[in-house]
Amino acid sequence: MKRYERYADEIAALIRHGTLSPGDRLPSVRQASASRRISPATVFEAYYLLEGRGLIHARPRSGYYVSPAVAATHNGDVPHSQPKQRSAKVAISELVFEVLGSVKDREVVPLGSAFPSPELFPLAQLAKHLARGMRNLDPWRIVEDLPPGNDQLRRQIGRRYAIAGMSIDTDEIIVTSGALEALNLSLSAVTRPGDIVVVESPTFYAALQALERLSLKVVEVATSPRHGIDLEALAGVLQRHEVKACWLMPNFQNPLGSRMPDERKRALVAMLAAHRVPLVEDDVYAELYFGAQAPLPAKAYDRDGMVMHCSSFSKCLAPGYRVGWVAAGRHARTVERLKLMTTLSAAIPSQEALASYLEHGGYDRHLRKLRLALARQQQVALDTIAQHFPAGTRVTRPDGGYFLWLELPQALDALELHRLALLRKISIAPGLLFSADRRFTNCVRINYGYPDDRKIVAALKTVGQLAASLL
């Protein structure tokens, strides 16, 4: 155990035993460094780790404080989903378009958005790399950077895998127009209309839309807010159905925020390999972890090339640049050809800018700041929900990403809550968007990825009051 982890565990024990109470101020970084004879960097890392666990939170220009002990905000309180585990057609898009069209309006507080605030990203720095790259662009690169994509960018992505301890051949990395295209191409590579695909329950509505567009059938599998998809339930589905693919999000699943433990990821990959079922792994939030160490993807345990690992820079660095990728394993050439047959190429300027930024722009420094901001914003949201939402509200507490999943009292209609909130210029994402059969009618997903505390707190307070009025 590293020194900062030992120090963090000592503070955590003091909080658990009541020696440090909610609202108590922790020693400043300078005080702790002097009294414990450890470096300020060690203290900072310990506080960063505790903040990621939700045990403490920072107050601007004031220091670190013990967080409120709110029992309602522990993700173990949100129960497993209980889908019917039978195959079904998907028809969700019209509802998605109706509910989410509002997030384009700047006057609407975007608690229902799928995107973090653009203010959190180094867009000015990226623009400089974009301008420099285009000034020096060899015209032949326009042809050379056709799929699989910009060589320098693919090498940088390969280095990120290597830093995580994964050996991924650059030849299997294909640059796409965002992660959503990577996911769609991967799904197209291994399925045909009418095939059955497994998803989590609840699942991201974009996955349901992709299945609908490709005329695929879906089986939803019970998913824990803490540990991810239920492997025993998945094993039963694989026995009963001829499953052609799984579309899963093991790290900071949208909307639950669950993260599968490493041993469960290993077991998942082994189970699917035994059934020869490809895994389309959606891993767009992996860089947004709050602890000391990045979570490994399921791809790390792939020995047969059956995992198609999809990610992008949209959620962690460059929203709007629309650059993603897939490490497609044994299906790489099929995905590459599908890319050429559909959208031909990801944008050359965006690839050039990101390749330059990854090499020279301080990506890891930016990620550290981003993670700290999101961890602090999560605590603000949890505190506000605990104070202003109806009794009986249960909410997840993920250790990464920027979503909270709220289960409201059973009698509440989340779609009606959405419509009332929208009249007050606040968007939320009602739970029925996240299931093919429109379950989770008393649930909502909340986006805390916006740094304006006063605006977010006021909006959450209003939504909580509206929820109480509906009851």
- Measure the end-to-end span: 49 Å
According to CATH, the homologous superfamily of the largest domain is: Type I PLP-dependent aspartate aminotransferase-like (Major domain)
Structural class: alpha/beta
Count of distinct strands: 16
Q: Radius of gyration in whole Å, from Cα? A: 22 Å
How many helices? Answer: 16
CATH topology of the largest domain: Aspartate Aminotransferase, domain 2
Tell me the overall shape.
globular
What's the architecture of the largest domain, going by CATH? Answer: 3-Layer(aba) Sandwich
Side by side, the strands of the main sheet go 4-11-10-9-8-5-6-7
Q: Domains counted in the coordinates: how many?
A: 3
Percent of residues in helices comes to 40-55%
Q: What's the mean pLDDT score?
A: 90
Largest sheet report? 8 strands, mixed
Please indicate the percent range of residues in DSSP E strands (runs of 2 or more): 5-15%
Give the CATH level 1 class of the largest domain.
Alpha Beta
pLDDT < 50 runs, ≥5 residues: 70-76
Could you outline the blueprint of secondary structure elements for this entry?
Blueprint lengths: L2 H14 L12 H8 L3 H13 L3 E4 L3 E4 L26 H8 L8 E2 L12 H13 L5 H4 L6 H13 L9 E4 L1 H13 L5 E6 L3 H9 L3 E8 L3 E2 L1 H10 L2 E6 L13 H13 L4 E4 L24 E6 L11 E4 L4 H11 L5 H13 L2 H26 L5 E2 L7 E5 L6 H10 L2 E2 L1 E2 L12 E5 L5 H18 L1
Parallel strand pairs: 3-14, 5-6, 5-8, 8-9, 9-10
Antiparallel strand pairs: 1-2, 4-11, 6-7, 10-11, 12-13, 13-16, 15-16
